[in-house]
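Lab notebook, bench 4. Still working through the backlog of constructs that have no structural model yet. Next entry is a single chain of 77 residues. Request: give me the structure tokens for it.
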Amino acid sequence: MSNVKVLGVGCNNCKATVKLIEAVAMAKGTPVTVEKVEDMKDIMTYGILSTPGVVINGKVVHAGGIPARAKVESWFN
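Model written out:
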């Protein structure tokens, strides 16, 4: 199971990123836990400068803007 964290303070892009990740994981049959990280101190520990950020199993895989669906799909191959 993949542990996915979406880093962001609750903006619409962050919410859309969570929904996209959940939809892609469900479509691929990949079990994931999606955690929303909204505390700025916690977000800053990952070293990203723009949100939303995505961390999978402790590794930053995306920062800034909603990721493309194809990119999200590549995370779960």
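Notes after review: The helical segments are 12-28, 40-44, 69-75. The mean pLDDT is 95. Flag for follow-up if needed.
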